[in-house]
Amino acid sequence: MKSIDPNDFKVTDKIKLSKIPTLLKVKADDDEKAEKLDKVQSKLSDLQDVMYAYNKYSVLICLQGMDTSGKDSLIREVFKEFNPRGVVVHSFKTPNAAELEHDYLWRHYIALPEKGKFAIFNRTHYENVLVTRVHPEFILAENLPGINTVDDITPKFWKKRIEQINNFESHIAENGTIVLKFFLHLSKEEQRQRLLRRLEEGKHNWKFSPADLKEREYWDQYQEYYEEAINKTSTELAPWYVIPADDKEMARYIVAKIIWEEMQKHTDIKVPELDDKVKANFEDYKKILEKS
Q: Transmembrane ranges (predicted)?
């Protein structure tokens, strides 16, 4: 299987999602993909330990994608070797009453990772320019000044919200949070097959919701708004990566490999060295412990 180059998936110029394949054709079976993923998992686990000791950076992994694109299973498989104390997963659903009493970015801001740790946003602050664009009536629940009806939500409103998201990401990146954003690019046909499996396979029945079928009717609108959001918010400080997601095993490996490769750019992340005076007294410390 050929080596994965993050630049093949990184959004640096304007993209058209309809032109990007949802399946990466590779000469590898599932066992080989799993073996490749295992190796990267181990590297990421070791990196997590070093980053925790260094304690100057945090990492925010943002996952977006249509229903059934594989976000949950990707999180489970890519990060399963991590120390649970060093990674936190946040799944952002419809804002609750307390969250609606704050601005729309508040609940995301307070979920940011501490220094030395990873956070994974399973659905992210981008829901505020995706779901709410498809269903602008949701904005009314935010009780914003000047927004009394859906007709008050103009193109200028969405442009400003995109600017706010860019500013949010720039701010946290400039203060030590490494931001990596992944769009799991699924085909409509593959989504249909996965929804059918949820109905046909008993162990997956619980995942099915009639709401999934309703949202599927808005497929083209979602693709349009994803494309616009990605094009306007993929920056050097907070890049987007479009990941072919029809093959779950391959998507997991690609995401893991990109995280690993991107983290290698931060060459300053190292285990801190002990003070010379402490190292010089190692033998004395040993003697104290041997006698105690």
A: none
